[in-house]
Amino acid sequence: MSDRWPVEAIPNADTLYVRVHRQWLRDGHVLPGCFQNRPDEATGATSSDWAKYATPDETRQRARRPEMNAVVALNVGRVRTIPEQRVIHSPVQFDPELPDNRAHTDVAGPKESDPDVRRLFVRIATLVLALPPA
What we know:
The protein is α+β, with helices and mostly antiparallel strands. It has helices at residues 56-61, 76-80, 115-124, and strands at 15-21, 25-26, 29-30, 45-50, 69-75, 86-89, 104-108, 126-129. The strands form two sheets. A six-stranded antiparallel beta sheet has the order 6-7-4-1-5-8. The protein is globular and about 40 Å long. It starts with 14 loop residues before the first strand and ends in a 5-residue tail after the last strand.
C-alpha cells in the first residue's frame, strides 16, 4: 500500500490520459460514445490519469484487457471549457478492489445526456497510444 496522497489542484496546462476501448475507435478516430461516466458512480465521472503521475502505457495497463485499449490525451484547460465538466484529482488508495493510483483523476459532469458535450471531447482528444498490433 502507498502512503496517503493529497488531492492536488491540476493546472490547466496539464494533460489527462483516458483509455479508449477498441469498440470506440474507427479508422484511428475516437467515437463520441467513448466519453461517458462510469455506470457504478453516483457522482458521474469519467476516469482518467494525470500525466504528472502516469504515462500513456501505464494508463493502458490499468485496463482489464490492455491489448484492447488505446489512450487519448486531453488538455485540462480545454476540458474545463466544456459545459459543466470538472477535473478533480482523486487518487485511489487503500481500496482492496483497486490498485493504488496516485494519477487517478475524475472528469465529472454530464456527458450521456448531451451529444454536443461528447463531440467537444472528441475535438480536444489526441490519440497518443494506438491499439497494439494484433
